Amino acid sequence: MPVRSNGALGLGFAAGFGLPRWILSFLKKRREAKFLEHFPDSVDIIVRGIKAGLPLADSLKVIVNDSPEPIRSEVRQIVELQIVGMPLGEACGKLYERIPLPEANFFAIVVSIQQKAGGNLSEALGNLSRVLRDRKRMKAKITAMSTEAKASAAIIGALPIVVMTAVYVTSPAYISLLWTEPFGRIMLGASVLWMSLGVLVMRKMINFDF
């Protein structure tokens, strides 16, 4: 009974804490991916608006009306903060607090510097748009390059399990020594340990931070 209770407690903790955390992390990454997908286009809208003679605040309102989520809701919060009296540069800085991505920080820095020091905002944002698109292309290239490595790692990691299952189906008495004999259990445990270390090393090698 105590073992069963401890197992149920562990399962309940994993379901109550691990699952919601995983779901929130998944939703956060999906929202950030959608933000990055449309953010360069939104910066281009601001650049065209400024070149047409619109103030920055009015260009942001165009994004609120025309851009998809989550760009629309994030820029709406910038506009609302500016309406209640917060300086526009500081309001753009809040974007990085809600979307902790380098691209959002770049935008906030450009707007903040322009608000304090002046300068050609359309040119600065145009340069920012090119940087954002270059980063987007680089991420896509890294993803394409790492996909092949991930597939190879999955095959290598699954191969021992597949071979072990095939041997067990064809000759169960031959492979059952791994869990019926003391030395076999030691070999099995060592194999699991080394395979786990190999998977961790491959995971580190193919996961790129950019």
Please outline the helices and strands.
Elements: H1 2-51, H2 56-66, H3 71-83, H4 88-98, H5 102-117, H6 121-170, H7 172-175, H8 177-180, H9 182-206
Helix pairs in contact: 1-2, 1-6, 2-3, 3-4, 4-5, 5-6, 6-9
Care to describe what's here?
This protein has 210 residues and is mainly alpha-helical. It has two domains: 119 residues, no CATH class; 65 residues. The protein contains nine helices and no strands. Helix 1 runs antiparallel to helix 6. The N terminus is likely disordered.
- Based on secondary structure, the structural category is mainly alpha
Number of domains: 2
What is the total tally of β strands?
Answer: 0
The proportion of strand residues reads: under 5%
Straight-line distance between termini: 49 Å
The number of distinct helices, counting runs of at least 4 residues, comes to 9
Radius of gyration: 26 Å
- Rounded mean pLDDT is 81
Q: Oligomer, anyone?
A: single chain
Low-confidence stretches: 1-7
N-to-C SSE string, H for helix and E for strand = HHHHHHHHH
Q: Give the % helix.
A: over 70%
Biggest β-sheet: count, sense, barrel? Answer: none
- Choose one word for the global shape: elongated
